[in-house]
Amino acid sequence: MTTGVFQRIHSVLTALPISERKIAQYILEYPHEVLNQSAQQLGQSTNTSGAAVVRLCKSLGLKGLPDLKVRLAGDLAKNTPTPLGYRDIEPEDKIESIIDKTLQNHIQVIEDTASLLDLAKLKQALYLLNQAETIHVFGVGASGIVAQDAQHKFLRLNKHATAFTDTHMIAMLLANANSSDLLFGISYSGETKEVIDLLILAKKYGLNTIGLSKFGFRTIDNHVDVSLKVSGEYEAVFRSAATASRMAQLFCIDVLFFSLISQDYEPMIKHIDHTRQAVKYLKDRTYK
């Protein structure tokens, strides 16, 4: 991706060390000036240092200042210096307003997530998914719904997949799993104890692991081979409904699903057709 600096900064701004936060805020306020500055000059402009600039790039998941500048230029070309913000519903909102707010929130979280997805890590995840004999997907709460959606998609591609919600069931599966199996842990916060515990257990048994969480460094990152990230800020007050986070996670699962199809197109399309025919058979059945 060649955009995403603004979104990355907003996602981690409050968690950054003071020196890095000063540089990040400067980038948000004076993006055009940053394009023409070296690390040392940017450090001087923010009363920090060139080393702090390098650390900020690392905190943002970027390769360095040149990478930041390329993405920053992309953001400026799109003319989106700051996110529009997620809109919450209000008491007595008209249904037309709710439709508009829901639409805008879903569009924005998908755009934000698209700007954050790391192509190299996506390719690594696809490699592991292709190599896996069985894919065990696990999440809690709303992330559990995403896990079930992932299982559904993997099954359609003739990949063995599970999505149990009981941690003991998953633990037993891992205990008897083959070394070629994979655990895909989904936790929007990246801190869900049940997900992290199972990922640690999976590594104990020698399985490959993939994690899916919001942008920024999370505990889950310590226990996975590949860490995929989605948009992590600007949830509206009704966070309990997990609407924006769920849409972001589902978008990432869809990207993986279509990428798997594209890599082995003809066989995958046949698998999808076979599953469609099987479901159609059940729908067409009539009983007297």
**Spatial arrangement of strands, main beta sheet:** 2-1-3-4-5
Give the beta-strand count: 5
- Low-confidence stretches are none
> What would the CATH topology of the largest domain be?
Rossmann fold
How are the SSEs placed, and which strands pair?
Blueprint (H helix, E strand, L loop, with lengths): L4 H8 L5 H12 L1 H4 L4 H7 L4 H10 L5 H14 L16 H22 L2 H13 L2 E6 L2 H15 L3 E3 L4 H9 L6 E5 L6 H12 L3 E7 L11 E5 L12 H21 L1 H20 L4
Parallel strand pairs: 1-2, 1-3, 3-4, 4-5
Helix pairs in contact: 2-5, 4-5, 7-12, 9-12, 10-11, 12-13
Structure commentary:
- The structure is a single chain.
- Strands 2-1-3-4-5 form a 5-stranded parallel sheet, sandwiched between helices.
- 36% of the residues are buried.
- The longest helix is centred in the middle third of the chain and has 22 residues, at 95-116.
- It folds into 2 domains: 5-78, Orthogonal Bundle (Arc Repressor Mutant, subunit A); 116-278, Glucose-6-phosphate isomerase like protein, domain 1 (Rossmann fold, 3-Layer(aba) Sandwich), CATH 3.40.50.
- The mean pLDDT is 90.
- With 288 residues, the chain is an alpha/beta fold.
- It has 13 helices and 5 strands.
